[in-house]
Amino acid sequence: MSKNINNKLTRLIKYYSLINHNLILSNKTINRYNLSQPNIQKDKALNLQKLRERINEIKNCKLKENASNLVFSDGNPNSKVMIIGEGPGANEDKEGFPFVGRAGQLLDKMLNAISLNRDNVYITNVVNYRPPENRRPTEKEIERYLPYLKKHIEIIKPKIILLLGSTAMNAILQNTEVISKMRGKWYEIEINNIKIFSIVSFHPAYLLRQPDQKKFSWIDLKMIRDKLKKIK
Ligand code: URA
Q1: What number does the ligand 1 atom closest to the CA of 126 have?
Q2: Distance (Å) from CA 7 to ligand 1 centroid
Q3: Predicted local distance difference test score (pLDDT) of residue 39
């Protein structure tokens, strides 16, 4: 009898350690940072607040006019790892947080595989308002939002940036390459005088359509895990 209960308990513990149980058990948004959290440095919190307000004050922008919410960021501002996606989709626009839809769930699973989660990464996008019909942001839109993204990076001061998809890669690395050529390597970049290791990988939305490419993402994730060990 007690052996049975022990077996069941062991199976349950294994199950909950394999899944992101926070996402399943909680009906609220999770791990959202709160700028009044005492462990976020005051000037960092203030600078994030100011940046958010500046983006909120953007005028004459088609993206903003069509969106319901500003999607600023999620995760922990003290993280060593900053993740940059393309732009909010319908779910993100509704909830006001990046990567909360299907691609976000896959991203959470990918991060969990290397012991990361929204408590130890910081997530944002190239553009902070949803492009209509989920189209790719135009060059002009990317250019307009780039100074805000660079400021965002300057405030967070990550050690590592993970660029998900070609929009983020093209914007930050200032190239026109494709992901398949650029992924799997470290690039030492400098943004607003901050030196950062950056790595490029497939966007989770692409991986949902092309699951056979996940093996390459796994290589990139392991590179991040190893780099984190070295810079700790
Ligand atoms: N895709 C992105 O690039 N960003 C999000 O926030 C959601 C989906």
Answers
A1: 3
A2: 40
A3: 73
Mean predicted confidence (pLDDT) in 60-70: 97
Q: Does the pLDDT of residue 183 top 70, yes or no?
A: yes
Please give the distance, rounded to the nearest whole angstrom, from the Cα atom of residue 10 to the centre of ligand 1: 36
The runs of H, that is alpha helices, within 113-189 are 139-156, 166-173, 179-182
Q: Which atom of ligand 1 is nearest to the CA of 85?
A: 3
Which residue has the least CA distance to atom 7 on ligand 1?
99
DSSP conformational letter for 132: G
pTM to 2 decimals?
0.85
CATH of the domain at 126: 3.40.470.10
Please give the residue range of the domain that contains residue 116: 2-231
Count of the separate structural domains present in the chain:
1
- Sign for the CA dihedral angle at 89, 212, 161, 109 comes to positive
C-alpha of residue 42 to centroid of ligand 1, in Å: 28
Q: Given ligand 1 and candidates 122, 125, 141, which is best to mutate, with the most ligand atoms within 8 Å of its CB?
A: 125
Angle of helix 214-231 relative to helix 102-112, nearest 10 degrees, comes to 50
What distance in Å separates the CA atoms of residue 153 and residue 91, rounded to the nearest whole number? Answer: 24
pLDDT (mean) for 98-116:
98
> Are the C-beta atoms of 131 and 80 separated by less than 8 Å?
no
Residue 115 phi, psi (nearest 5) = 60, 35
Phi, psi (deg, nearest 5) at residue 100: -110, -5
Q: What is the whole-number distance in angstroms between the Cα of residue 94 and the centre of ligand 1? A: 13
